[in-house]
Amino acid sequence: MTVTVDVLNPTQSDAATRSVELPSEIFDAPTNVALIHQVVVAQLAAARQGTAATKTRGDVRGGGKKPYRQKGTGRARQGSTRAPQFAGGGVVHGPQPRKYDQRTPKKMKAAALRGALSDRARYGRVHVVTGLVEGDTPSTKAATAALATVSTNRNLLVVVERSDELTWKSLRNNVSVHLLEPGQLNTYDVLVSDDVVFTEGALQAFLAGPAIGKSGKGAATSSEASAADAATEGEAQ
Q1: At 217, is the secondary structure helix, strand, or coil?
Q2: Residues 124-135: pLDDT tens digits?
Q3: How do beta strands 126-129 and 3-8 pair?
Q4: Are 25 and 110 contacting, i.e. CB atoms less than 8 angstroms apart?
Q5: Is 146 exposed, middle or buried (0-12, 13-18, 19+ CB in 10 A)?
Q6: Which are the contacts of 85, defined by CB distance < 8 A and separation ≥ 6?
């Protein structure tokens, strides 16, 4: 079943809206909660710096001299005042620099993203707009007002083409808006946002990409290579 949403033009209140069909394999896919949880945990783990470090008894300065003789004092034998049981000594089993990355296959990431987008689409929380700013001058006030007509929720995820500098500059200072380009769209950002707003160009770019789990080609075919060479030669002339 194909999901249909209206294409809104929030910059013109009296503009007629039209509809666009969202492919069901992306926006009406089953939502696997366990899979989404695994992918989100892996994404948050990969964002950890892993730079926490403590000094062991070998890293702490001092303690080279034996504090007192081995026998005859009635006390337990000690070889250094930098042992863990002494104040100022090293730390036992403390954190050391490490990586928290978890291996997550690309197909799992793609399936989790499809499930998250489908969940938002089922509840009418996926929107498509023609644009958010009119003219050639960035305006945070105008873009924010346009978004308010699309959704009244606070946290919005806006997917914009990388080349759309007007929208980027207009919304980059809005603390309630998280901007992403189509290739950066991920499960976590979809889940932490109340609504997902696509511009028409960003939606087309997202649907043309590896959104359904298909991997990109690592090398061009001979026909593609020859076409690229011809285009390069034409530009050089």
Answers
A1: coil
A2: 999 999 989 988
A3: parallel
A4: no
A5: buried
A6: none
